[in-house]
Design brief:
alpha/beta; nine-stranded mixed β-sheet; binds guanosine-5'-triphosphate
Length: 236
């Protein structure tokens, strides 16, 4: 079977890195995610990863904290996760380059779009750290932006929930599960799957988003093979 996609962005939330522990990096969780990523990589798919930082820092956690400062702290958290992912993937023999949107040249390469594309062409996984490098932009928006920049065919949005629902299925047992949505529906219904900046960036640039659960890491492979899992957000 051939993979459905040639070049993808995988968005991993910070929480995905911490597994059931809920904070920090859980090595066995990260290993199981990376094994799946490796499997997909070996099918010839070009993979860029955008990682969040919520396992270390959640937005404006401190009361009254300046929003920009809190967001910069979050960006630093994504660098920790990017280095952790790089280490685990390299340990598995997968070539990786980390690029950071905020320069810290002792730690990683700066983000350079053309170099990122070259890395992908040379069969390396590229991990984008530090979000967009700007406060007020989420790592979901980073995934949308980078997908547009590197011409990725789809964003694979790995979540702790298996699909998009109209309300929290853990609270409301009658929550409606969606298999397909348009960008406008996501925006109009106020669905919390992605922030509106990220959703509209994908809409304007015609980038589909597949939302699926990472409780079963095999879902990354299923998503790449084009199996119908989770919720696809795209134009009709
Ligand atoms: P090619 O240009 O295709 O040979 O790619 P390459 O990434 O193998 O070559 P390069 O010499 O650019 O990088 C070698 C190693 O140094 C890689 O692991 C890069 O991620 C890393 N590297 C490159 N530039 C920087 C930088 O500015 N800072 C840090 N910390 N590492 C860098």
């Amino acid at each position: 079977m051939e993979p459905k996609y040639k070049r993808v962005i995988i968005k991993l939330s910070g929480e995905a890195m911490s597994g059931s522990v809920g904070h920090g990096i859980n090595t066995s969780t990260v290993k199981s995610i990376c094994e799946q990523i490796k499997e997909v990589f070996e099918l010839g798919v070009e993979i860029a990863i955008v990682v969040g930082g919520g396992n270390f820092w959640r937005g404006r956690s401190g009361e009254g904290m300046d929003k920009s400062t809190a967001d910069y702290m979050g960006m630093l958290a994504t660098v920790i996760n990017a280095l952790g992912l790089q280490d685990v993937l390299e340990e598995m023999g997968v070539p990786v380059r980390v690029q950071t949107a905020i320069e810290m040249k002792q730690i990683a390469e700066p983000y350079i779009r053309r170099k990122a594309i070259r890395h992908l062409e040379k069969r390396r996984i590229v991990i984008f750290a530090s979000g967009t490098g700007n406060p007020f932009f989420t790592t979901d928006t980073t995934a949308a932006l980078r997908a547009a920049e590197i011409d990725a065919e789809i964003i694979l949005l790995a979540k702790s929930i298996d699909a998009v629902y109209d309300s929290d299925p853990l609270i409301n047992p009658n929550a409606k599960r969606y298999t397909e949505l348009t960008y406008i529906e996501v925006l109009n219904k106020g669905l919390k799957v992605m922030d509106s900046t990220a959703t509209s960036l994908c809409m304007d640039n015609h980038i589909p988003i597949l939302v699926f659960g990472l409780d079963d890491p095999k879902n990354i492979l299923r998503a790449i093979m084009g199996e119908k899992i989770g919720t696809i957000i795209q134009e009709v």
